[in-house]
Every structure is written in structure tokens, then in C-alpha cells.
UniProtKB/TrEMBL annotation:
It comes from Thalassospira tepidiphila MCCC 1A03514. Residues 4-327 form the FAD-binding domain. It comes from the Bacteria. This is FAD-binding domain-containing protein. One of its GO terms (molecular function) is FAD binding.
Length: 412
């Protein structure tokens, strides 16, 4: 049966546009089906330096530089009087980026999608995938266009980059319960009007509630004087029973220094609320398909790892599919895609677990603010370099976190 394309990609978020562009550049025929019209809002606005390496390889950087996004070189962590500045350039890597951007995703994702389409990728907005039949070399996709008309697309292979849509996990029954407890995110955009001369717009500000270490906030400034503000707390927390979400948000902001920093801020978007955003899958690949980015799963927003994992998975999958296209038959998706991808995701997972049980917060605030290798190892993962096995903190994350925590715990 003649195929309409070599590879069908579901979704034109960062994972979808990037895998499509990399495959197209290598000579494959790619069709991307995207359910929405772009630009569209999506949360996930603070990038990590490691994702720049993939964006550069895909040829996206000139267009991103032209867009004038907010430069980002690190993170500031605050909890009451405790304060720690992390500079991503002070990392363990010998090559690769040490800086990145903070982006409004509507604009960022639109640029990536446009660049892929401009290069020749067949990218169709307003096309929602509703059903699939997967078999390596012979896949069938059913989709609906804006007018509600149903059509089919035949492809050699399906890449699911549908993010929170999680198309293949749902259609193929691959979803499994995430390991973490359900948390809720409340977030908005503000015209921030921050006039504190000490405030550094080149860094994401992560604030921890002074009395509740499981409640934390992000402040992500953009280059146009606006910022993204959000707070994470346990979903259904009895402390907030009976309160409306805007009241919870306002109260939590007022209980930290953010209340002063944002005293003159004006909210420009309606407050949004998402709960149960963590997701996991039984497997990441199978006969004729692979899952990328959030379609495969999502850990937690705390280290801004989402887009970096999405782009890393896109690059790994593109390399596999290019090798396959070149006629190599000895491709093992489990060994060469799933296993190495999961290695880095597990590193982030250990960081996330150590954040919520307090160990990582202790390490961040108490580790000597020096230029030691240990500090560089910690910073490297915060900069997104979670797959570099040369970094002992990647190779043996839990053991090193334990050791660092012991070293950083003040003697009582
Ligand atoms: P997406 O960006 O979700 O793109 C998927 C696309 O697929 C969408 O455009 C969608 O319309 C399309 N689609 C869905 N269903 C279908 C269908 N049936 N047919 C066709 N198309 C379909 N990450 C960071 O890196 N930094 C952060 O600061 C950050 N903050 C976050 C804060 C919160 C509260 C949360 C919940 C997440 C955060 N993330 C962050 C994670 C980030 O949002 C995601 O990891 C990232 O968007 C994943 O990219 P993606 O390409 O996999 O999917």
C-alpha cells in the first residue's frame, strides 16, 4: 500500500516540530497533524540550557534569536531569609550551552512550527488525530479537520508528540498511574512592574513558602515587562478548603517576598488551574510508534525540565528513524531509545523527589557557594544535563544526593 509519508507526527509542540524538522532535514517525508491553530497558549515557559543544543541542531536558533526572547542564565532560590543564586554557566559540562531563554510558549512554539513548515515539512493545523492502527512500515491514522470531516493518512511510522493530549497512551492503553502525589498549579501572566534594583530578570525565581516546604512558586520574567507567576501546592490541601482559587493564589503570594516584589503587578491573564499533570506510560515505543515528551509522561514542573526532556526525546527518536531510513535493520528501540531516555528522566525524578522531601532544598541553600566540582555536578543537572554519564551525580544520582545532603546538613 502506498504511503502518504514516511513519518506521521501527532502534535506540533516543541517535541513534534523538532523531530519533524530533524527528519525532514535528513530527507524523510514528514507530515505533522496538530489539533489546534497556532499561536496557542501552553504552560512551560522557562527553558534549560541543554535544550539549546537540540534547538541549534534543528536550525531553529536564528529565528529564536530574532524573536528577542528573555535571556536566561540561571535560577534564584528563596525561602524566607535564605537565598541562593545558581549560575547555569558554572556547570560540569565541557561542551554545550550554559544559557537559554524564558519564552511565552504561544510565540516560541509558533516559531518552531513555522520554521519546520518553511523548511518543507507538511504541517497541518486544526487536524485532530482520533484513531490509529500501528504496524512498523504500515500505519493508518484517522483525523478530523476543522470542518469536522474525517480522513485517513498512511505512514510508515507514527511519532506521538501530542503532549497533554497523550493520544497513543490513550488509544493503545499505555497510560499508567504516575508515582507522585497529585499537586495543583495556579498560574497567570502579569505586567510585573518590578522596580527592585536587586531583581535579576535573567533568572527564574523559585520561592519556597517559609512554613510549608511542599508549596513553591515560580516567577519567570519575559523580555516585554511581563512575567509568568505560578504556585504549586498539594491538590485538595485541607488548609484551603472552602477558598476560591484566586483567593488561594493571592493569599499564598502575599505570604512570601513575592507579595512585595509584585506589589504593583497587574494580572493580564485569567488565573488558570491544572491538577494531576504528572503522567507516565507503560512503554515508550512499540511496533510502528514512539512516544515523545509529555505524550510519554511528565514528572513535575519544579526544575523546568519538560521542554528539555521533550527535545531530548525528539533528537533521540530522530536519530533512530534516520538510521532506520538509511536501511539499517538492527534497530533496537528499547536499548537505543527508551533506556537512555529513561536514564535522564530518572535523574530528574530523583531531583524532584529530593526537592519535595526537603533534601535538595537543603543542598541548594547549604552547599558552599564555591567553584567546586561537587557544585558543578549539582548545577549541571539544574541546567538540564541529566544524560551525561560522566557526571557522577547522573550516574549515581540517589547515592550522591544522599552524600551531598549529609555534607550540607548543618550539625545540630
Ligand atoms: P506540548 O507542548 O503539549 O504540545 C503537544 C501538541 O499536541 C499540542 O499543540 C496539542 O494541541 C497537540 N495535540 C494534542 N492532542 C492532539 C491530537 N489528538 N491530534 C493532533 N494534535 C494533538 N516545562 C519547561 O520546560 N519549563 C517550565 O517552566 C515548565 N513549567 C511547567 C509548569 C506547569 C504547571 C506544568 C504542568 C508543566 C510545565 N512544564 C514546563 C512542562 C511543559 O509544559 C511540557 O513538558 C512541554 O510543553 C512538553 O512539550 P511537548 O512538545 O511534549 O507537548
Amino acid at each position: 500500500m502506498r504511503q502518504d509519508c514516511d513519518i506521521a507526527v501527532i502534535g506540533a509542540g516543541p517535541a513534534g516540530s523538532t523531530v519533524a524538522k530533524l527528519l525532514h532535514d535528513a530527507g524523510l517525508r514528514v507530515t505533522v497533524l496538530e489539533a489546534q491553530e497556532f499561536p496557542r497558549f501552553v504552560i512551560g515557559e522557562s527553558l534549560l540550557p541543554n535544550c539549546m543544543n537540540v534547538l541549534e541542531r534543528a536550525g531553529f536558533l536564528p529565528a529564536l534569536e530574532k524573536a528577542g526572547f528573555q535571556h536566561k542564565n540561571g535560577a534564584v532560590f528563596e525561602c524566607g531569609k535564605k537565598h541562593r543564586t545558581i549560575d547555569f554557566r558554572q556547570n560540569f559540562e565541557t561542551t554545550g550551552w550554559g544559557t537559554t531563554y524564558q519564552v511565552k510558549r504561544a510565540e516560541f512554539d509558533h516559531i518552531l512550527a513555522n520554521e519546520a513548515a518553511r523548511a518543507g515539512v507538511d504541517l497541518r493545523f486544526d487536524h485532530t488525530v482520533t484513531a490509529v492502527q500501528t504496524s512498523d512500515g504500515d500505519c493508518l491514522i484517522t483525523y478530523q479537520d476543522k470542518a469536522g470531516a474525517t480522513s485517513e493518512l498512511r505512514a510508515g511510522f507514527i511519532v506521538d508528540a501530542s503532549g497533554y493530549g497523550r493520544v497513543l497512551p490513550k488509544l493503545l492503553g499505555l497510560a499508567r498511574a504516575p508515582q507522585s502525589i497529585a499537586r495543583r498549579a495556579l498560574f497567570t501572566h502579569v505586567n510585573d512592574r518590578i522596580d527592585d534594583p536587586g531583581y535579576d530578570r535573567d533568572k527564574i525565581l523559585i520561592t519556597i513558602h517559609p512554613d510549608r516546604h511542599d508549596i513553591w512558586y515560580w516567577l519567570i520574567p519575559f523580555s516585554d515587562g511581563t512575567a509568568s507567576v505560578g504556585v504549586i501546592y498539594p491538590d485538595g490541601d485541607p488548609e484551603f478548603t472552602g477558598m476560591g482559587e484566586q483567593d488561594i493564589f493571592d493569599r499564598l503570594i502575599s505570604e512570601t517576598r513575592l507579595g512585595h516584589l509584585l506589589a504593583n503587578a497587574k494580572q493580564t491573564r485569567q488565573l488558570q488551574s491544572i491538577a494531576g499533570y504528572s503522567a507516565d506510560s507503560e512503554k515508550l515505543c512499540g511496533d510502528g510508534y514512539v512516544l515523545l515528551g509529555n505524550a510519554a509522561g511528565f514528572l513535575d514542573p519544579v526544575f523546568s525540565s519538560g521542554v528539555t526532556i521533550a527535545l531530548h526525546s525528539a533528537e533521540l527518536a530522530a536519530d533512530m528513524l534516520i538510521t532506520r531510513h538509511q536501511g539499517h535493520t538492527d534497530i533496537d528501540w528499547e536499548t537505543d531509545f527508551a533506556k537512555p531516555l529513561i536514564q535522564g528522566v530518572e535523574t530528574f525524578r530523583s531531583y524532584v523527589d529530593a526537592w519535595y522531601d526537603g533534601r535538595l532544598q537543603t543542598i541548594i541553600f547549604e552547599q558552599p557557594d564555591d567553584d567546586s566540582q561537587l557544585k558543578r555536578m549539582v548545577v549541571s543537572i539544574l541546567a538540564g544535563y541529566a544524560w551525561n554519564m560522566e557526571n557522577p551525580l547522573v550516574a549515581k544520582t540517589d547515592r550522591y544526593l544522599e552524600m551531598l545532603h549529609d555534607l550540607c546538613t548543618p550539625a545540630s
